[in-house]
Design a protein that fits this description.
Order of helices and strands: EHEHEEEHEEHEHEEEEE
Strand order of the largest sheet: 3-4-2-1-13-10
Oligomer: single chain
Distance between the termini: 5 Å
Structural class: alpha+beta
Largest sheet: 6 strands, mixed
Number of helices: 5
């Protein structure tokens, strides 16, 4: 059997008093579970990018990101155990309104970090992304944030469709769109992708104090588009949702929960 494993995680790499402790603890957790590829979002400043690369280097010596001003472009960092065959960054054409709360999304220059990997003779394309947020928390009315998310999802589906037909394609990250909404259904149909957790409504976001509890929703994903592989089996589950040791105390690794993907064939 051939296998490919991946973890996607919004690491909440925003400057704060315990961020460096959380990111070092994350590196230890990743070493313990050892996926082939790790896709991180919200790496918001270069010092945290350097911290993560150094802390993860013993188990994940290969990495990809795109240069930007104060942080990697899109806040995206992908790590791998084996050499990365190539990488590129595809900016979203619509990144939101600069004169709105979406200014942070605009400044980060959100998009898609594409990396290529090989499992034996099987090519694997990973699309690591973090969509703009819907600051109204309303996925029913046609508000400006929803319209931006729709256009980004349309572009992501387009990118997925343009990948080589013989490649195993994984689109993963923080989509900021809840499972079961019209936007989610539109993307699944347009991309032709499988959501291994399609009927799972467990939240992957844990609202911070001051943020309404209604934002606790499943918004992190590992979508899969697979060629005709013999004996194909796809499994996924949430991970990194428990408190861990952070210095002298305990705390969560992030305000998000990770998603692990395991694919087997042969």
């Amino acid at each position: 059997m051939s296998t490919f494993s991946l973890i996607t995680f919004n690491c909440f790499g925003v400057p704060g008093p315990v961020t460096h402790l959380r990111l070092r603890a994350l590196a230890q957790q990743l070493d313990a579970v050892g996926p082939d590829v790790v896709c991180l979002q919200e790496v918001q400043v270069w010092p945290y990018h350097r911290l993560l690369r150094a802390a993860c280097a013993p188990h994940f010596p290969h990495s990809a990101s795109a240069p930007h001003i104060h942080a990697p472009r899109g806040g995206l960092l992908s790590l791998a155990q084996q050499p990365i065959g190539g990488h590129s960054f595809i900016p979203y054409r619509d990144r939101g309104l600069w004169y709105s709360p979406a200014l942070a999304d605009v400044a980060l220059s959100k998009g898609i970090l594409r990396t290529e990997h090989w499992c034996g003779a099987q090519r694997v394309v990973v699309l690591n992304t973090h969509l703009s947020a819907n600051y109204r928390g309303d996925w029913q009315s046609e508000n400006p944030y929803l319209q931006t998310e729709r256009r980004q999802l349309e572009q992501l589906a387009e990118v997925m469709r343009h990948q080589p037909e013989d490649a195993l394609v994984v689109a993963c990250g923080d989509f900021n769109v809840p499972r079961g909404t019209a936007l989610y259904d539109e993307f699944v149909q347009a991309s032709g992708a499988l959501d291994p957790l399609a009927h799972d409504q467990r939240p992957s976001y844990r609202p911070l104090p001051g943020i309404p509890a209604r934002f606790a929703l499943p918004i992190d994903y590992t979508f899969v588009r697979a060629p005709a592989l013999p004996g194909l089996a796809v499994q996924s589950d949430l991970c990194f949702g428990e408190r861990v040791q952070l210095g002298r105390g305990m705390g969560f690794l992030s305000d998000h929960i990770g998603v692990r993907l395991d694919v087997r064939w042969g």
